[in-house]
Amino acid sequence: MTFFYAFLIGGLICVVGQLLIDLTNLTPAHAMSALVVLGAVLDGFGLYEPLIELAGAGASIPITSFGNALVHGAMAEAEQHGIVGIITGIFEVTSAGVSAAIVFSFFAALLFKPKG
């Protein structure tokens, strides 16, 4: 059932993003930003972690999990370090993913040549 829930929840997140692009005047960048905000709001209300437990990668891979990570890290560090923890928590939780994306993109650019 784990694979089914991952497919269902991940697919629904993608459908929401596609509908935002198709049915509104939002650009793909705006739709992606809306999904990040949606993930942040869901985590703020404590609803995103149960979604990750249910769907696994179906909820932790889409862009909504970035909003979840931002809020989750900020809230966890704010409990320990106060207001300063809000800023440091955001960077601490998301820095590994952003750094990995930069490094892997660099190596992909070295290995492959775009056609144009």
TrEMBL record:
Transmembrane parts of this sequence: 6-24, 31-48, 54-71, 83-112
Keyword Acyltransferase tagged: no
**Does this UniProt record's set of keywords contain Membrane?**
yes
Keywords assigned by UniProt, alphabetized: Membrane, Transmembrane, Transmembrane helix
Q: Which InterPro entries match?
A: Spore_V_AE (IPR014204), SpoVA (IPR005562)
**Protein name according to UniProt:** Stage V sporulation protein AE
Source species of the chain: Tumebacillus lipolyticus
